[in-house]
Amino acid sequence: MSSLRDIARTFADAARRDYVGVWRIVAAVREAAPDADETARRDATLAVVSLLLQRGLAIGTFRTVSAPSAPDYLFERWPEPRDELLERLRREWDALERDPEEGEVAWLVAPADEALP
Amino acid sequence: MAGGAGGRGAALKAGLWPAPRTRGIVPAMHTLATLLDHVAWADARAVAALRALPDDHPERAQGERLLAHLAAAAHVWLSRIEGRAPRHPVWPALSLDEAEALARESIAGLRAVAAGDEAALARVVEYRTTSGAAFTNTVAEILAHVALHGSYHRGQVAALVRQGGGVPAATDFIVWVRERDPSVA
To answer: Which of B8, B32, B48, B98 could link B2 by a cystine bridge, Cβ 3.0 to 4.6 Å?
Structure first.
């Protein structure tokens, strides 16, 4: 079974190449601990996100910048401090009243100077 | 004959025809996930076959470009499903290692999408192609496209590997089925 640090390490590497949706981390936690309840799954996911933020990853959301029928997107980084980032993620997740699905809540990505290629 | 009153169905009922042997039947909703599992395996095999060619072979560079495209295509389709910007163009300049990692991560994301329920797979995705045209497709259609698109380019890579003096990888779906379930033999 993957530990939370293993999951964080995997996504820290992936975030150098692509945006990592929070839903992907939820899915990885669910796979690692299929019997965990919703609260445990959320806490574990937030713990992974905390590790990723400690590694310097940015968290934010995409804003649609053109017509809804054919959208283009702009990544907007959430402002620090780090504690507030986790609290914001927790609030937005709570507002959803279920686990985030693809495209929901937030994304993580390595800063441009760490991105590959 | 098979569908007639005296055909296979009646013969089965009468016990005159051997019952079909079944094994690992894949429910329709899981077919896409299965196809994507095959893609992950096939991509890794294609990368390994190309990596065996010497760095200075022109076929290696051509194959790397194709595999980078394969990885980027999966990445771009994942980004469309997720409703966000891609980070790479459809034909990126990636090393073989980078293409391998991007493909692995993007297919893992698509595989997670494929694990969704029927409603999630029927969701309509609005997107714009790289040439700017707007389209809509369901998540299931996109996943099927990704699974099928790879076969074409892996075939091209196999031809290049052979041309460069290497051994092309067998990446057929049925080969994957046989390898993961030896009882097929």
So the answer is: B8
